Every structure is written in structure tokens, then in C-alpha cells.
Amino acid sequence: MLSEILTEVGSLWIVFVAAVVSIVAAFYIKKGVDKADPGNEQMVIVQGYIKNGADAFIKRQYTTLAYFVAGLSVLVGITYSYDAPTEYIPQVPGWLMVISYILGSVASGWAGWLGMKVGVDANAKTAAAANKEDRDLGMNDAFNVSFYAGCVMGLLVTGAALGGVWALYYFTSNPRVVLGFSFGASSIALFAKAGGGIYTKTADVAADIVGKIEQSLPEDDPRNPAAVADNVGDNVGDIAGMGADLFDSYVASLIATMLLGLNIYGEHTFSAFPLIISAAGLFASLIGIYLIVNAKKEDPNDALNRGTYLATGLFIGTAAIVTVIVQFTSPDAVSATRLWKTYGAAVFGVLCGLVIGITTDYYTDDRKKPTQAIAESSEQGHALNILTGFSYGLMSIGPPVIGIAIAMGVAYALDGVYGVAMASVGMLAIVGTIVSNDAYGPVVDNARGIAEQGGLDEEVIAVCDRLDSAGNTAKAITKGFAIGAAALTVLALLYSFVQSGHEIIPDDEVISLDIQQPGIMIGLILGVAVPCIYSAILIFSVDKNAQIMVKEIRRQFEEEPGILKGEVAADFERCIDIATKGSLKALVIPSLLSIGAPLLVGLFMGIPGLSAFLAGSILSGFVFALLMSNAGGAWDNAKKYIEDGHLGGKGTLAHAASITGDTVGDPFKDTAGPAINTLICVMSLTAEMFITLFGLMPHSGLGFF
Amino acid sequence: MLSEILTEVGSLWIVFVAAVVSIVAAFYIKKGVDKADPGNEQMVIVQGYIKNGADAFIKRQYTTLAYFVAGLSVLVGITYSYDAPTEYIPQVPGWLMVISYILGSVASGWAGWLGMKVGVDANAKTAAAANKEDRDLGMNDAFNVSFYAGCVMGLLVTGAALGGVWALYYFTSNPRVVLGFSFGASSIALFAKAGGGIYTKTADVAADIVGKIEQSLPEDDPRNPAAVADNVGDNVGDIAGMGADLFDSYVASLIATMLLGLNIYGEHTFSAFPLIISAAGLFASLIGIYLIVNAKKEDPNDALNRGTYLATGLFIGTAAIVTVIVQFTSPDAVSATRLWKTYGAAVFGVLCGLVIGITTDYYTDDRKKPTQAIAESSEQGHALNILTGFSYGLMSIGPPVIGIAIAMGVAYALDGVYGVAMASVGMLAIVGTIVSNDAYGPVVDNARGIAEQGGLDEEVIAVCDRLDSAGNTAKAITKGFAIGAAALTVLALLYSFVQSGHEIIPDDEVISLDIQQPGIMIGLILGVAVPCIYSAILIFSVDKNAQIMVKEIRRQFEEEPGILKGEVAADFERCIDIATKGSLKALVIPSLLSIGAPLLVGLFMGIPGLSAFLAGSILSGFVFALLMSNAGGAWDNAKKYIEDGHLGGKGTLAHAASITGDTVGDPFKDTAGPAINTLICVMSLTAEMFITLFGLMPHSGLGFF
User: Where are the domains of chain A?
Assistant: First the structure.
């Protein structure tokens, strides 16, 4: 068996091993979380509410998704069974593409669901672990529980993604089959990221407006009827949604590079190489995780960041090792120079990801100038807080843009468009670490909430606060990674789309994407508008749902004054219900937009117009994702900076203004900003999936233009 | 003489006549404003403060500009005297280009200065005209004074622009000479728009924060030390700055079309045709103005909009007449079909401009859903006001993007890139009307201020309020026009730049702007970031200067309690000084950016990379200009909607929240948003001006990539 794989596509066994190790490790770590102390009775009750709310949401979401996936399966099946005029189409039979598509959605859905389950469980367990006489020990244990929970998500996502891609590629030897898997993962991400993002911010914004601003209740106060919905939101949006988002980018970067590798070089080695490089990244993440949990934690913040740096450094080594293996075992006569140049592009990618992450951190860290300037401007009121935050958000676009430009230029110089694609693979190679760090955040955030609602000591809450703050900083770096990687990934998808386009048009025609042609410019400008409209729809949904929830909370406080006195329990269910129904209903239009827009543009403007449309959406998507994520992060931390006692602390005008900024930033950074990544990825994959339909259009001219 | 012009470039005499008629009409109307009643003693005093403040600012600004223009003159002179290797460069001698450049800056500066002078004078005179027993008569007279003042600006801008372009083209028969004129006009616009925009919003924001929010003073209250600076700002930013901005776009659309006409068709008729079409637009504007001031004004709002519709309708007729004249008098053997297709592109342009304007109006009109929804969300506090406004701003990008895409597609189908350029000329043909309506706004805004400070009746203030509100709606439509026209203009400049590029590279090479090439994608992504950084710098400047002014106002109130009681006059000079110095100092970096960025990109990445860079800046510039202008306008009107008594009116949480939105929107809509138009125009003109420098770079490859 082993020798067969070796003969067929070189060193692909490494990928299989990595996927298995990753999933085994996830289950091993999960057992550790399962065994942890669940806390006192009140905590168990609150935990139960959160668990039920999250389960109810996921159940309804997955039911809706099932219909959506079924519908798209039919479309996929028909498209791939279509008797098209070129020899390109029969490469993948319809039934196989449908299986691959469903497999992708199931794999992503499974990893997201199981990862979230462990994350939810760890909410109360982290609080319980922090609740120790010895504060240092409490900090250490609580960090480990929450970090373990994050790792389960990180390893499940990486393992399921890599395993699925490996299986499909191994059994069919056709990267195009993997495309269906990627499209399936994207379908999940579309719902999980946008739906979860709307859910979490509906509850967060509403809880802040009535609880914090009107009634001056502290964060996570159990008297607030939206408190549980807020906690549920952290789990479904920030854990499940984020996991599905990165699963999506990860698989998309792999498929784009695999398709390019085969199209350009015609050798399976170059289509298998991104998988092997990703396996190397997975090992690097695993070693990094092992070293972190076994190190002494003086500062949780440093621990998390050290993990990212470690994984990056280790990846450079492990990737070199697998490159050597590929070089000496590949059955194709590959050039060693080309292989090492490709390795260089991947390493350059991960380093650029790190640089982008660090600049993101600069703009959102409360020890740096931007966040402090936002806090200071809050002393002049709400408006200047908003203006300063928004301006720094705009400013923060500069460094990553230069970073991506350099990454693109160097990667292209190393190995053409395949090099650019490999840079995206490199950036996402340590996705295990990125997801682990990201999922850690909401776990400790909720641990704090449960500690508050479970009546634990102020000092325990302070421990949770410190862990939470570390999560925010770690998140800044990983978020930069995620946005940069998404940009490069969709760029690679764009290149791959154009390459595929070349295969379905007659040999004597060339696809030109010259912006001097009006169809290209029109495609670009239409594409640029889509992330804006998409963001607007998502923010509106949060806005509208939050207003409904605000009214419900006010109604409860008015009709039952006992709630505010702490004598009567608030009706959490109603708020959970509003968030669940509202966020799923809100998904209809954005989902139609992300699938429908590329289909329409492709049908009317052909392959060149659609390529330009995708390029336009990448350009504005990158910019708006950075603006929204970074402004949102900075507003959040400026508020925390003031709450830490700076500039007069709580109760001042500066504090009120900083809460406004934080509330505005909530849907920016946790709903619209990250959902843009999913949007551009889904649109690019839709284009590639249904490219045969657009081949029916005139293609050397520009569709109707 | 007449026959000579006719022989040389067809019907160019029409342009000369139009320019002369326009300037004569401006002076004739100015005399009417000069004769109007200046109001009571207190009004004359306030008026004097405003006049002195505006004069001081303009004097300092023009002094700084003189150095800037002198420096660039040297660069222009050297570049055009350079002994370059292609036959393209010696077309224009250095000294001639410098003269043209200086002429452009002087013409724009003169029109802006004189127009503003009349506008400032009309501030008090409008208030005085409104101060009549018969309210209807007062409304009518006040409307006429302020509208006349606006017309002076509109006609001076059109006349000076058209006259300057005519003269240079007539005496040299070389459109490239006109390029210098356009670059000169852009230099002025860069300072006038960005500098004036920072000035006006520094004062406005600071006055609102301390006056309205902290001390609950009404708008324009004379006790507010920033009140006069606020009024000065309206004049230097919204009149002088706006005039320079449209002068810039107007000339740029002409030069781009002239260059393309000559390059593509090699016939002077097609290089003269845009001028003649613009002359037709000028006549249409003049007739429109005449009809409006002589009609009975039931509703000032309808009167202004009727003016725009009238001018549009008339333009379709006058343009047809001049096209007939050109068809039968042109010395070139031009094809009538081509001529009428070009006419069609121009007419299609102005219609699309109207559609864009009307959708802009939808998003900012307080009788429509978006603005009312923003007002309603204000009841839930500051954050939801911001989120709703921002979302509608994002949404408002959709219709104009579709409008521009259709305009581009149809214009291109009619007559290629020359057709696209002609669509921009068509959109700007009625610039006389656009500037008149735009300049009317700040005049009545200030009339209201002076009425308040001059102690006039509440009813007179109400008349001014009604006139002001009409100005806001008219502004929405003209703003849509301006942004759409700027986008098409820079697109035309881009096409012209690439055409020029083709002339300076060897014959066997082609400039490819295919986005599959990394240099093009890098150029695009760098270009996309520039309007973001530029906006951030401008908003920061407002933010920073406003904070300084806020401290100064608070200081005055604390040290002299008599000011708030109305017993002691506030020290206006200090605030004026802060705004003047702050805004000029803040111009250094944005100016360097807009001239330096295209130079650097061109030198490093060659003509293709720079073309892509410009395209990127057009894409994001268009989107951000729409977002900021429309969100800002909607916030402003949502506040007015509440102040009109809806949702509880003044003093409620909704009102406080709506003031926050208005304050955030101020630098969005009046500083950053419109300055982006200038930025992309200046960058495109810089590229075209210094194209010979970039020709030294490798051009068939992509510079360094």
C-alpha cells in the first residue's frame, strides 16, 4: 500500500499520516478537557443554558444548510453531467462531484460542530480551573483547559481538511475532484461565519446597549436577559464560525495550488506538493502546541504569541525536510531547483503572514499609540472616538497592502503564479496554531461570563480577564494572518480560474484581462462594490436584530422589576430565540448574493468579465476586511484600556464614548469583516465550479461587451 | 479672424463665445449681488469677521500655493526640456508647458477667489433679504441673492476653464499644451479642496462638540468662540474648495478627451469636439439659470432641482445644435455617424449623471427610508446611529456603480474609449448649474448663522432654515454628479495615459495591462490603498485640529464666564487662527502623497504598473467617495429630521445620538469624501504630465517585476 502511494504521487503518505495524527491528537486532548472539573452548581446551570442555546442554533443552522447543500448538489450534478462541447468537462462525472461536494460540507460541519462542543464544555471548566487558592496555579490550569479546547478545534479543522483532500486526491488522482470538497466547505463557511457572526453580535450589541449603557450592569451580569445569548454567540460565531472560515480558506488555498500545479507543470508532484507542505505545517503546529502547554506560563499573552512564532520557525524546518523527501522520492523527473524555489515561496508566505499579523497587532494593541489615541479622543465625546478609530482603521490598510504586494512580487519572481499560490499555502500551513489561538479567545471570554454568573470571587474574574486580554492580542496576529492568507488564496483561485478558462476555449484564442477593455473595467468596478453591499447587509441584520432584542430586554425589565433586583431570573430563552431566528433569516440574501452574483456575471460577461469581477472583489474585500477588523479591534481595546482605569476609568464621558466605539466595532470586526473573506472565497469557488457554463458565452470578446 | 478659426479647427468659435458670455454674465450677476442690502449693524460686524477670516485664509493658502506651484514649475520645465530618446517628447517646449501650468493655476485660483468673495458678501445680504414683513417676498428675494451668488461662482468657473483651454488650444493647436493648464488647476484644487475641507470641518466639529453638546448652545450662537470660524469654513471649504474641485474635473475631462480624440482619430475635429459640447452645456446652464430666477418660487427645493433637470434637457438640444454646426463646418472629412455617436455618448453621460444624482438623493433625503431609519435607530443610542448610517452609506454604493458600469458599457459601444471620455464631458457639461447649486448651499447656511448672530426674528431664521434645507437636497444631486463625473474623467485620463504610453515605446511593443501579470495586480492593490490612507490623513487632521480648538473654546468659557452669559464677546480670532494654521500644516503630507506616489510607482514599475496603480485608485476612490459623502449626508439630514420635532425632537437621546452621527459625517462628506476626487484626478494628471520619465523604465515587462 505504502509503496503504491509512493509510486503514484510521491510522498503523499506524509499527508495521510499528518491528518491521522492530527485527529488522534484532537481526540486525545479532548479527553483531557472532558475530565476537567465542571464547577459549582450555578455554573453548571449557566453552562447548561449556553450548551442548549448553542445546540439549538447549530441544529437549526445545519437543517437549513442541508436544504441549501441539497439544492446546490442538484446544480452541481447537472452541470457536471452536462454534455458540453469541449473535452474538458467530462473529466469529473456528476455523481463524483456531488459526493465530493457533500463530503466537503460534512467534513467542515463535523469539525466545526465537534470543535464547538468541546469549546462550549470548556467555558465553565476554564472558570472552574481558575477558581483556586493559588492564583498562579489557577491561571496556569485555566490557560491549559481553554488552550486545549482551542487546540481541539485547530487540530480537527486541519485534520479533517487535510484528510478529506488527501482521500479524494489519492483515490482519483484528479485535483478537480477536490474542487467539489472545497466548494462544500465554502457552503458551510458561508452559513457558519455570516450566521454565527450575526448571532453573536446581535446579542452582544443588545446586551451592551440596555445592560451596560442604560442600566449600568457589568459585562455578563446574570440579570441581563441577553447574557446567555451573548455567551452562546461567542461559541457559535467566534468558535464554530471562525473554524469553518479557516477550514474554507485552507482547503481553497490547497485546491487552487493543486489545480495550478497540474495545469502549469503537468506533473502530479506539483499538485501533491502543496498538500505535503501543509502536512509539514501541521507537524510544526503540533510541536508548537506541545511545547506551549508544557512550558511555564508567566504571561498567557507571551505564551500564545510564542506559539505562533514557534510554529512559524518550526514550519521552515519541517517544510525543508519534506521538500528533501519529495525531491528524492518523486516518480516525476522534477527539477530540484524548481522544488526549492516553490519551498521558498511557501516560507516567504508564512513570514509575510507574520509581518501582517504583527502590524495588525500594532494597530489594536492598547500599549501602542493608535489604541491609546482612540482612548484619548474619547474624552472629547462619541464622535471623535468614532472618527479616530475609523481613521486608524483606514491607516492600518497600508502595511498589509505593502506586505501582500511584496509577497506577491517575490513569490511570482520565484515561481510564477504557482509561486503566488504556494505563498498562500505557506501562510495557511500553520492554520492549526491559528485556529487554536483564535478558539481560545471566546472560551476564556465565556469563562469570565460564567465566573460572573456563577458568583465566583472578583479575583477569579480578574484571572479570567487577564486570560481574555491575552486572547485578544493573540487574535490580532492570527486575524492578520487570516486576512492576508484569504487575499492570496483567492488570488490563487483567480489565477487557477483563468488557467481553467484557457482549457475550455479553442486553442487559438487567448483570454485577455487587460483593463483597457471596458468589459474588464466594468467587471472590476462591479466586483469592487460587492463586498460593500455584502457588509452592509450583514451590519443591517445585526442592527435590526439588536433593536428587536433591545426592545425585548427593556420589556422584561419593565414588566418584571424583580429581574433587575436579582430576585427573579431573566427569561434568557426569548433572547436566544430572537438571535437564532433573526440570524438564520438574515442569511438568505447574502447567500444568494455570494452564489448568484458570480453566476450572473459569468453568464452575462463570460470568463474574462467574471475574472475581472473576482479581482475587483478581492481588491475591495481585502481593504474592507482590514479596515473593519482593525478598527473594531482597536475600539474594543480602547474601551478596555479606559476600563483598566486610564483617563478616569469607568463612568466618565470617555468611557461612554469608548463603549459606543466598541459597539460600532462589534459587527465590524466579528460579523462583516471576517465574513468578507468567506464571501470572496465562495464567489471564486463558484466561478471555478461552474466554469463550463460560462464557456458557453463568447469569451474572446467580453461577453456582451 | 473668425474664418481663420473656422478653417483651422472647425467650430471652435462657439467655445470662445461661450467663455466670454459666461464671464460677462458672471460680472453682470455680481453687480446685482453687490447692490443688495447688507443688513443691520450687528450683521455687518459679523460679516466683517467672516470676510477677514476668509481673506486671511485665502491669502495664506495662496502664498503657500505660490511656492508649491513654483517648485512644480521647475520640475515641469526640466522634464519637458529633457532631451529624451523618443520623438514624442519635443512636442511641447518646457517654457510653454510652464506657462500653461501657471496659467491653469492662476485661472482656477482667480475664479475660486472671486467666486468666494461674492459668496462671502452674499452671506449677510441673503439674511437681510429674508428679513421682510412679507415672508413670501423675503423667501423669494433671499433665494435670489444666494442663488445669484452661487451662479457667479458657477459661471466664473466654467468661463475661466473653457476660456483658458480655448486660448491654449487655439494658439498652439496642440492638446498636450492644455495638459499643463489642467495640471495647474489640479494643483489649486489639491490645496483648496483638502485645505478648505479640513478648515471647515475643524471649526464645525469643534463648535458642535463644545457648543451644542456640552453647553447646549444653538447652532451659530454668537457666544460660541468657534461660530465665526465655522462660517469662514463654509466659505473657504464649501465654496472656494468645491469650485476648485469642479474646475479641476471639468478641465481634466476636456483634456483627456482632447488627447484621445487626436491620438485615436488624428483629426482636430475630435479634439475640438469636447470643447464645443461643453460650450453647448454652458449655454444650457445659462438658459436654465435665467428661467429659474425669473420663475415664481413656491418651493426653493423644487426650484433648484428644476434648474438641474432644465439644464440637462436643454443640453440635449444645444448639444445637438452644435453637433450639426460641427458636421457642416468641420474642415476635416469627419464621418457624420461617428459625430452623432459621440454626441450620443455625451448625452448618455449627462443622463447617467442625473440617475446617479437621484439615487444619491434617495439615500440622503429625510423624506425617504434610509435617513428616517437612521433617525429611528438613534433612539437606541449613538452606536446604532453610526452603524445604520454607515450601512446605508455602503448600500448607496450599489446604484451608482451600476450606473457607471452601464454608462461605460454604452459609451464604449458607441465610440470606444473616446466615447467613455465623451460621457464624462457630457456629465460635466452642465457644471455651471452644478457649481451654482453647490455654492448656493453654504451661502444660505451662513445667512442663517448671520441672522442668528445679528439678532433677527425667529421667523427670518426659519426662512433661512428652509432655504438651507433646499440647499442640502440640491447638493445631494449635484454631489452624485460630481462623483460620477470624476470617476469617468479619471477613467478617460487613464485611457489617455495608456494611449500616450503607446507613443513613447518602440513600435513593436504593446502595453499590456492584463491583471494576470503580477505587476498589474500589485499596481492595482497599491492603488486601492491610496485613497484609504489619504482619507485617513485628512480625517486625522480634522480630528486633531478640532481637539485643539475644543480645548481653546473650553479655555475661553472657563477663563471668562461672561462669554456664556452673552456679556463679553468671545475671542473669534483665536479659533480662526487655529483653523487656518492647522489646515495648511495638515496639507503637507497629502500633497506629497498625491504627487509623489504616482511618480514613485511610475519610476519603479513603469507605465503598465502605474496604469494599474491609477486604475486601483479609481476603483477604491469611487467607492470611498460615495460611502463617505452619502453616509455623511444622511447623518446630517437624520439630525435635522429629529431637530424638526420627529421622534421627540431636541434634547432626547435620539437627538444626542444624531449629533454624534452628524459630527462623524462632517469630515466624511465635506473633507475626505470630496477630496478623494481631487486626489485621483491629481494622480492621473501627474502620471500624464511626467510620462516621459517613466518611459525610461522597462515597459514591456512590468518595471521591476
Answer: 2-694
